[in-house]
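User: My collaborator sent over this chain with a note saying "see what the structure looks like." That's all I know about it. Can you take a look?
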Amino acid sequence: MKVFVKNIDELTYVCDALILPLTEDKGISHYRDIDKALNGLLKEIIVSGEFSGKQNETSLVHTHGKIKSDKVLLVGLGKGREVTREKLRQAGGKAVSYLRNLNVRNVSLSCRVFSSLKLMPSDFIEGSLLSHYRFDRYRKEENHKEIKSITALSGEDLRKQINLIKTAASATLLARDLVSTPANDMTPSALVKCARALKKVSVKVIEKKQAEELGMGAYLSIARGSMEPPKFIVITYRKSNTPPIALIGKSITFDSGGISIKPAQGMEKMKYDMAGGAAVLGVMKAVSEMNLPLHIIAILPATENLPGCNASKPGDVVKTIDGKTIEIISTDAEGRLALADAIGYSKRFKPSMIIDIATLTGACSIALGNEAIAMMGNNDSLMNKMKRASEETYEKVWQMPLFDEYKDYIKSDIADLKNSAGPNGSLVTSGYFLKEFAGDIPWVHLDIAGTAWIDKDRPYVPKGATGIGVRLLLQFLKS
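Assistant: Without extra context I'll predict from the sequence alone. Here is the result:
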């Protein structure tokens, strides 16, 4: 969907549908000229109680040629004093989803109400772009409904804000596409192709033999059951001479659980276990397009986790790149094995900070549902910055504790660590496991297991892959 900004009056702009955002308390006060042209139809709808302006409420009006737009869509923002950037995103998503189902092609947006709310129309448009998504690569579909363009009718210069939200939305949709792609096509090798398609970055792929020479025993233990070759992907973006930010995304392109196999029900969704890597690729796409003055080392330890004849077994002991040994209690706790070697490898670049993002634990969903990312780390300042980025994007994070006592939970009788402490505290003990490898480097862990996939449509997030983490990390990096 293309986005334009034009300084044209709503009454004279030709389009299929004109969106008028309204608050409960102000009603049509911003649109009296449009209501007059429509012979008082807007006021009549409100007086009748058909539309009140409640959050995400919609009402469609056919103009019958009285103005240049064929239709007018009223969309509610709620009470004016309670309108937030997130509510604008939701209203934008709701409006565009409604119009797309009517097979509308070209849409305009009145921006009159936004200045009175001291908010930007870019948030409304961001919700519109994020909602206008569907993954239909594998279906033959007739009468495909798609909005071609949305035009913001405003006298303000919104180009900078619009370009930023277009870039962030495009990166989020890329992440959604990658996660939605079936695992037979989204292999570790396919992730390499995605990385190499990025601009303004250099890409290095550490193949299995080199990974063995480097001592990545934890990461390689996951790959042993699969015929797909593992690919340890390192992406470098350098627009600054400062120490790099290490950005690590779990990239298990399919997770059966290995020998500790998962239940069959719902296993098809485990193609989403590379959602952390997808988010990192989306972030790198956006960072390069924005030309942010940063130095980033992005790492995707990509492989499949399958129960082949050569697969790792519970009880095996593996050695990581930094020399620590790990007893494998569960082969379904594989993500932390990959991240351990990825964190260890990242330290050779002497990063200023390490951020990892991963669909790491089922316990994250149990604790927080589909509402928040579980955040853990060893640096309060870094986590506070992530919280502020969360507030801006509404990709919510919730800080979990990493008490020193959790170290006892992951003690092994025969190795330095074990990769699973069992169900007791499994969300936080997985974080503490990673803390052992981050050491003293400022580090934040983001567990997106509960938020990377949803089973019900939301105002600007259709059910399925969410692309969570892209907008959060972009906001963090920009600030």
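A starting point for your reply to your collaborator: The longest strand covers residues 295-305.
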